[in-house]
């Protein structure tokens, strides 16, 4: 029944489906690992049990999210061999080592210290436990660095030579490969997106408990205050980083920016900013366009009258799918503005002394809780679909990269992925949401370390000083 389908399109859909599931977990765990390190450092510095309880609350959620991210990432990597073997063969000399470095550095670092972070707080000294937590946080950032370096090279390839006999991309300068032209901007943009995503989730969970009547709990208040402070600080930085990334993209991938802006025609004396409309790739126009004259030239060239080329300068068969890129970009930008508005509202409420009393703010924060994931997905769609029809931009077409595999085979595995992913990861996400609905409260039993159950020793508090510290903090 799938003989009439295009194998390349199905392979692209399958990879898009699996990467969409995968990216939400690293986008969360990168920020959450750093948040855990901050919480633990504050607890060790101040002795305040609120930070300790928040650490315990979020570390369980981190562990589940980290596990699902690892599993989904492993499955995704197999597709390089099953569906994209030609790409793997030709680009493998460049992409392979970069992904290998990610395993040898980041994954080993995370795997080596994760157990100590999760289970070693009362088994090792506080210094070692803090060090392990910090190593896990650094490991997530190193992982993002290598993966984004490999992906950025596909967008702005540099430091390679082409072997004419085999068609392979051969490394010539690894510094240029790793630090390719788009890599610094994309890394900064992604890391800030991860921190915003985590802050929105933490703030959304705290807002949920505020609205459920738990707003008097010091844990909930501290959680909400820290999340809002992060959004206030990072949201403006993300807008600046996004502008820098856009200017870099205009320099190296102009067709992508043309699709994002909906510029089918060139504008020699200033291009308008199209806010909304219905792009039509066949007709090469945007129907019902709502636009602001010359504002796009001001944003992209910092000059109202600066000329901007349009898709009429790009051959039809090399134009990205404009409709998808146009709308995914607007979703991302709209959510970015909403994050900025949330941060501004939170700052205003803080200055007015109503951060914990403003139910309107809490409702807005609850609605915005999952929006970081949506923005990350919209950003990745803009980036990856905007690169089409190229796998390696300007060097290797997507149609040339797919494995010699039949459409029914790809369709069968795609259906299997959809069923299994929704079943397994749906269950995992459901369990995470159940954990988030619980208050990170302090019970009397929690104020005493679990007793040592060694043979011949009477069970009792493992650390009597900690009992007094807890009661003093309460």
TrEMBL record:
One of its GO terms (molecular function) is electron transfer activity. InterPro entries: Cyt-d_ubiquinol_oxidase_su_1 (IPR002585). Keywords: Cell membrane, Electron transport, Heme, Iron, Membrane, Metal-binding, Transmembrane, Transmembrane helix, Transport. The chain crosses the membrane at residues 20-44, 56-78, 98-119, 131-149, 187-211, 223-241, 324-348, 360-382, 402-433. The keyword Electron transport applies. It holds the Pfam family Cyt_bd_oxida_I. Residues 450-474 are annotated as: Disordered. GO terms for biological process: aerobic electron transport chain. It is a multi-pass membrane protein. Its main location: membrane. It is found in: Cell inner membrane; Cell membrane. One of its GO terms (cellular component) is cytochrome complex. Belongs to the cytochrome ubiquinol oxidase subunit 1 family. This is Cytochrome ubiquinol oxidase subunit I. It comes from Cereibacter changlensis JA139.
């Amino acid at each position: 029944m799938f003989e009439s389908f295009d194998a390349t399109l199905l392979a692209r859909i399958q990879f898009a489906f699996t990467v969409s599931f995968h990216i939400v977990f690293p986008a969360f765990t990168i920020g959450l690992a750093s948040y855990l390190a901050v919480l633990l450092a504050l607890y060790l510095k101040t002795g305040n049990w609120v930070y300790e309880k928040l650490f315990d609350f979020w570390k369980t959620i981190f562990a589940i999210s980290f596990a699902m991210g690892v599993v989904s990432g492993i499955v995704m990597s197999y597709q390089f061999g099953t569906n994209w073997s030609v790409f793997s063969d030709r680009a493998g000399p460049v992409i392979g080592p970069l992904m290998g470095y990610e395993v040898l550095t980041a994954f080993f670092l995370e795997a080596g210290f994760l157990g100590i972070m999760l289970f070693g707080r009362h088994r090792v000294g506080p210094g070692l436990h803090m060090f392990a937590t910090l190593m896990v946080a650094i490991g997530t950032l190193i992982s993002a660095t290598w993966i984004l370096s490999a992906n950025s090279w596909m967008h702005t390839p540099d430091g390679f030579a082409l072997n004419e006999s085999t068609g392979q991309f051969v490394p010539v300068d690894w510094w240029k490969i790793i630090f390719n032209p788009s890599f610094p901007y994309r890394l900064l943009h992604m890391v800030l997106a991860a921190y915003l995503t985590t802050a929105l989730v933490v703030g959304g969970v705290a807002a949920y408990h505020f609205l459920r009547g738990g707003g008097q709990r010091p844990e909930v208040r501290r959680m909400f205050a820290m999340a809002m402070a992060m959004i206030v600080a990072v949201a403006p930085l993300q807008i600046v980083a996004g502008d820098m990334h856009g200017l870099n993209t205009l320099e190296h991938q102009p067709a992508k920016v043309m699709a994002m802006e909906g510029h089918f025609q060139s504008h020699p004396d200033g291009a308008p900013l199209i806010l909304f409309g219905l792009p039509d790739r066949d007709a090469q126009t945007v129907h019902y366009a709502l636009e602001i004259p010359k504002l796009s030239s001001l944003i992209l060239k910092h000059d109202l009258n600066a000329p901007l080329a349009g898709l009429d300068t790009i051959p039809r068969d090399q134009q990205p799918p404009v409709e998808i890129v146009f709308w995914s970009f607007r979703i991302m930008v709209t959510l970015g503005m909403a994050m900025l508005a949330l941060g501004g509202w939170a700052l205003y409420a803080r200055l007015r002394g109503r951060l914990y009393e403003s139910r309107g703010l809490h409702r807005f924060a609850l609605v915005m809780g999952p929006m970081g994931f949506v923005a990350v997905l919209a950003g990745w769609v803009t980036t990856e679909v905007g690169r089409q029809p190229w796998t390696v931009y300007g060097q290797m077409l997507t149609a040339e990269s797919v494995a010699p595999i039949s459409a029914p085979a790809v369709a069968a595995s795609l259906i299997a992925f959809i069923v299994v992913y929704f079943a397994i990861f749906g269950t995992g996400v459901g369990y995470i949401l159940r954990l988030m609905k619980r208050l990170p409260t302090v019970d009397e039993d929690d104020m005493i370390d679990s007793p040592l159950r060694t043979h011949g020793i009477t069970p009792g508090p493992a650390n009597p000083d900690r009992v007094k510290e807890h009661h003093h903090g309460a």
